[in-house]
């Protein structure tokens, strides 16, 4: 029979494995030794008897430790374990154990992890930047969660939503944890107050959109180059329309602020090809104010490439009200101009002057209205006067001189384009 000593030893073996203190093969040997090579069925049967005398949350912890141990011994036994858990009615305990572990509330039993999401203003970018969120390190834990999804999907989704680390959701998005969310969970994520959850939900609903866009672009490229593709235009367009409609249905449940934020996040990551539906939504009278705030008040626009893309989106996309009549884009052009000014003031976004930067600024000036170019010109002229780039500065305050000289090169480069190409 399972004993308290066995549970303690299993817990130590799992912890050592998680911390890479022992090899996987040695972990399996240790677990087999503790369990005396018993079958999964025998172990789960003994587990049912053992927890009958255990009280409270401790019972949940014991069940999770044993399930993780059996998975660490053999990851291919999920189907068998899920049936055994149903037979011995252990799903509630498994959920409770996972909930305690992922909450991180206990110093002795729980996950302690801090994601570096704060360094990413665009949370959609953060999610797509990585292919693995501690999955292989904690595989037995995630596969225990997968077993819960097989025996009680509603409890699994509740666990995924309440997981303070967000690791379950993140590994679902990357498909390491290959579980598809329900529409109910996606809606809940999109309407959450947590930005990371909102973007996880949006990534779930834009997977199909991105695939459809890629398919259509591939068909067009192959046709242009005379190459064969097995993808059919009619099917690709139908799939695209269905996915866009589904995405828009989900977005309608979100606030205007959330919609604008999510759409901008997506577009910044898919600058070369994206659905024009998204850009039209941002430019509409319903979202334009929030779009303006996203440009003006966040740090999502990070360089001249982003500015150039954003400006082309504003320039080429019609701004319409709910009656399909054109509305002004002036405040959006103002916000982009302010971003360019902030780049100069805060020493960010432009870190030198070269041919590529020159090309971006040339494109930007071709799309910015004259009054915005004049505003930028005036600011740059005034800023240039404050720079310490005289010969005396080079001699007595060399560090300041070097910094200001680099800024002067950037300002002079922009001013040259403004004065020659724009006649300002």
Structure characterization notes:
The chain is built from 22 helices and no strands. It has 424 residues and is mainly α. It has helices at 4-18, 24-35, 40-51, 57-73, 78-87, 91-103, 123-129, 139-151, 153-162, 167-173, 183-190, 195-225, 233-251, 256-269, 276-283, 288-297, 304-316, 330-345, 355-367, 370-386, 391-396, 398-421. α5 crosses α8 and α8 packs across α9 (153-162).
What labels describe this entry?
single chain, mainly alpha, elongated, 0% strand, 424 residues
Helix and strand layout, with pairings?
Elements: H1 4-18, H2 24-35, H3 40-51, H4 57-73, H5 78-87, H6 91-103, H7 123-129, H8 139-151, H9 153-162, H10 167-173, H11 183-190, H12 195-225, H13 233-251, H14 256-269, H15 276-283, H16 288-297, H17 304-316, H18 330-345, H19 355-367, H20 370-386, H21 391-396, H22 398-421
Low-confidence sequence ranges: none
Largest pleated sheet? none
Q: Report how far the terminal alpha carbons are from each other.
A: 87 Å
Average pLDDT level? 91
Secondary structure tally, helices = 22
Structural class: mainly alpha
Radius of gyration: 28 Å
Morphology call: elongated
Helix content: 55-70%
How many individual β-strands?
0
- Amount of beta strand: under 5%
N to C succession of SSEs: HHHHHHHHHHHHHHHHHHHHHH
Summarize the model shown.
The chain contains 22 helices and no strands.
């Amino acid at each position: 029979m399972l004993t308290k000593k066995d549970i303690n030893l299993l817990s130590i073996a799992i912890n050592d494995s998680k911390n890479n203190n022992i090899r996987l093969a040695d972990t399996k040997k240790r677990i087999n030794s503790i369990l005396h090579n018993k079958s999964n069925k025998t172990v789960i049967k003994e587990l049912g008897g053992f927890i009958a005398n255990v009280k409270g949350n401790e019972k949940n912890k014991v069940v999770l430790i044993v399930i993780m141990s059996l998975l660490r011994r053999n990851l291919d036994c999920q189907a068998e374990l899920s049936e055994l858990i149903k037979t011995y009615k252990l799903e509630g305990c498994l959920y409770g154990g996972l909930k305690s572990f992922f909450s991180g509330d206990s110093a002795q039993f729980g996950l302690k992890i801090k994601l570096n999401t704060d360094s990413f203003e665009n949370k959609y970018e953060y999610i797509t930047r990585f292919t693995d969120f501690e999955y292989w390190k904690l595989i037995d834990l995630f596969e225990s969660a997968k077993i819960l999804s097989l025996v009680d999907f509603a409890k699994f989704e509740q666990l995924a939503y309440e997981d303070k680390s967000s690791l379950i959701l993140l590994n679902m998005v990357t498909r390491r944890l290959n579980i598809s969310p329900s529409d109910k969970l996606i809606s809940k994520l999109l309407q959450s107050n947590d930005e990371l959850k909102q973007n996880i939900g949006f990534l779930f609903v834009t997977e199909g959109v991105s695939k459809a866009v890629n398919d259509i672009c591939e068909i067009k490229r192959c046709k242009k180059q005379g190459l064969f593709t097995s993808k059919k235009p009619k099917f690709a367009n139908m799939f695209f329309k269905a996915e866009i409609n589904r995405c828009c249905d989900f977005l309608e449940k979100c606030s205007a602020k959330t919609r604008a934020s999510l759409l901008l996040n997506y577009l910044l990551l898919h600058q070369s090809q994206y659905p024009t539906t998204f850009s039209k939504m941002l430019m509409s009278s319903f979202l334009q104010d929030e779009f303006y705030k996203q440009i003006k008040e966040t740090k999502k626009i990070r360089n001249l490439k982003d500015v150039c893309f954003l400006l082309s989106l504003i320039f080429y996309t019609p701004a319409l009200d709910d009656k399909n009549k054109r509305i002004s884009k002036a405040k959006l052009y103002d916000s982009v101009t302010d971003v360019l000014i902030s780049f100069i003031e805060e020493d960010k976004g432009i870190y030198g002057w070269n041919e590529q930067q020159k090309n971006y600024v040339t494109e930007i000036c071709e799309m910015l209205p004259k009054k915005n170019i004049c505003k930028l010109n005036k600011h740059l002229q005034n800023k240039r006067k404050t720079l310490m780039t005289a010969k005396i500065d080079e001699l007595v305050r060399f560090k300041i001189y070097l910094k200001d000289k680099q800024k002067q090169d950037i300002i002079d480069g922009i001013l040259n384009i403004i004065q020659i190409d724009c006649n300002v």
